[in-house]
Amino acid sequence: MDWWVLELISAAVLIALALWLGPFIKRFGRSYAADVFKSNPRTGKSFIVLVDVVYYLIFTAYILFTVRFEPEPGWESTVGADQLQFTVARIGGIVLIIGVLHGLNLLLMPVLGRLFTLNRHLDDRTPPQELR
Predict the structure, then answer these.
(1) Lowest-confidence segment of 1-5, 12-16, 123-127 by average pLDDT
(2) If you count Cβ atoms within 10 Å of the first and of the last residue's Cβ in the chain, which end, N or C, has fewer?
(3) Given pLDDT bands bounded at 50, 70 and 90, which one contains residue 106?
């Protein structure tokens, strides 16, 4: 197989992975966000929307950064071990990045939820200031 065929296949796999993982993560993340932002559900919904945008931006940037328009020096005109290793590392790289970012999101979301709740309580207790 020519080198560019594997390049097209890996790009298609990355796009399919993004389109499959995004809704999958969102489906299970809604209930978690609802628990974290239970005192302010609108903030939770906004947070989920913003995280979705970030998710697709990361995937798009990764695909654009790693796409090849010509074979690397050392690659043959047909697929060899070097190109196959690069392709597997490319797919594994995005899975690792998304996994780490998802884990950080799970750890930081309760902190953000608590911070937004405290901020809301402070806003409720503070009387409005008069305009001079």
Answers:
(1) 123-127
(2) C
(3) confident
Summarised one tens digit per residue, pLDDT across range 54-73 is: 999 999 999 999 998 888 88
pLDDT for residue 56: 92
List, as one string, the DSSP characters of 39-52: T-HHHHHHHHHHHH
Instruction: Please tell me the total number of residues recorded for the chain in this structure.
Output: 132
Which tokens in the block code for residue 34? 């609802």
Look at the alpha carbons of 41, 113, 47, 20 in this order and tell me if their dihedral is positive or negative: negative
Would you list the DSSP string of 74-113? T--SB--HHHHHHHHHHHHHHHHHHHHHHHHHHHHHHHHH
Q: Say if CB 33 and CB 46 are below 8 A apart.
A: no
CA-to-CA distance for 121 and 113, rounded, in angstroms? Answer: 12
CB atoms within 10 A of CB 6: 19
pLDDT in tens, 15-38: 999 999 888 888 888 888 888 888
- What is d(CA 56, CA 50) in angstroms, rounded to the nearest whole number? 10
Query: Tokens standing for 29?
Result: 């993340």
